Amino acid sequence: MYWKLIIIALCVLLLIFLVWKEIKRENKSWMPARLIASALEVISLIFLALPFTINQKQKTSNFNTAILLTEGFNSDSAQKILTAERDAKIFTTDRDIKAFNAAYITDVTAFTEGSYNPKAIHIFGYGLNENELNLLNKTPVIFHPAIVENSIINIDWTQKLKPGEPLLVQGRFNNATSLPAKIILTGFNTNLDSVIVAAKYTSCFQLTATPKHLDRAVYSVTVISGNDTLESEPVPVEVKITQPLSILLIAAYPDFENKFLKNWLTKNEYKFAVRTSISKNKYDRQFVNIVPAPIDRITASLLEKFDIIIADASALTALPASDISIIRNYIETKGAGLIVKTDTSGNSSAFYLKSFPLIEVRDSVQH
After folding, report:
1. SS3 of residue 38 by DSSP
2. Which residues contact 163 (CB under 8 A, 6 or more apart)?
3. pLDDT at 58
């Protein structure tokens, strides 16, 4: 603070000196103009030497009414509020809503922490959840709910399945009638599954069935209340046989984990070959769902037959450098997969650790 006063004092002394020089000047013509110019020079010097800031409160967009459109809103109801409230501004948190040129906002905090400050908010449609309403703090909210009808509000299912994989249909249904509604999953003229939604109630539902066919088929979800069919929605499904992966399993020694893995792969009809070390340069070989081939040495032509290599870390460590080079090149150039079963004999210089470092986590519980 003192240095500012010193600068101002020096500038005042400079101004006094310049005025005294002008008064002493023999040529008195244009003296007033020269005195004004000297004063402006000193003032400019002060502004250059001292930082000046202006504090100005940012103005927020204050308006009486905000209209927030959510999914299921009624256009006519929103239009009535627009007609009655001339200064109302329309917003939405749904990018798909384009009606009334609604301004998109990421969340409702724009009304409390952003540049908008409405005195009241009209919310149309299905509305906000409890957390979103809490973000509005004490801003008055007028809710205009969606028109209640008998309808499946949303429905979803996996359209592409594997043989034996269950078809799971999930959704939400609003029953506005005075009778219970029955939701039925139908396929090939057969009722496969059903659920009941109570009268005057909105509920989530889940229907399931296991397709017995291959290729494409169309199931249907039908809603029945009494003798009336309220709604029917098609459920297209494709059941497609996928080509099983070919796996090369390299084990340093027989163990329970490898036995369990082989049984699981066999049960799920994978194609795989297993090479298990018995002693130095002696291996036990097994081939399941695949044509037998020499697997004692790792070659590029051998790896072309497989999609994934599963190996013990110790088995990889024991491989010759030439075999490791072939595996690494095949993974990097062909995009094949490598799954390494780690153990205490890990090689810190292994090529697969360069991109995927391993960190040991020890159990801190003492027994």
Report:
1. helix
2. 214, 239, 241
3. 45
Cβ atoms 133, 211 nearer than 8 A = no
Q: Name the residue among 92, 112, 104, 6 with its Cα closest to residue 50.
A: 6
- The predicted-structure confidence for 129-155, as pLDDT tens digits, reads as follows 888 888 888 888 988 887 667 788 889
Q: Are 200 and 178 in contact (CB under 8 A)?
A: yes
Contacts of 125-130 spanning 24+ positions with Cβ under 8 A: 125/69, 125/70, 125/71, 125/72, 125/73, 125/74, 126/70, 126/71, 126/72, 127/70, 128/68, 128/70
pLDDT in tens, 85-104: 877 889 998 888 888 888 88
Question: What single string gives the DSSP state of each residue in 89-158?
Answer: EEEES-TT--GGGPEE-SSGGGGTTSSEEEEEEEEEES---HHHHHHTTT--EEEEEPPP-SEEEEEEE-
Ordered strands of the 151-157 beta sheet:
151-157, 167-175, 201-209
Cα separations in angstroms, 159 against 63, 154, 171, 259, 268:
48, 16, 15, 35, 22
Q: How many residues does the chain have?
A: 367
CA distance 210 to 286: 34
Would you put residue 30 in left (φ > 0), alpha (ψ -120 to 50) or beta? left
Q: Who contacts 23 (Cβ-Cβ below 8 Å, separation ≥6)?
A: none
Residue 334 host element (H or E): helix 321-334
Q: Are 250 and 312 contacting, i.e. CB atoms less than 8 angstroms apart? A: yes
Q: What is the DSSP letter of 245?
A: P
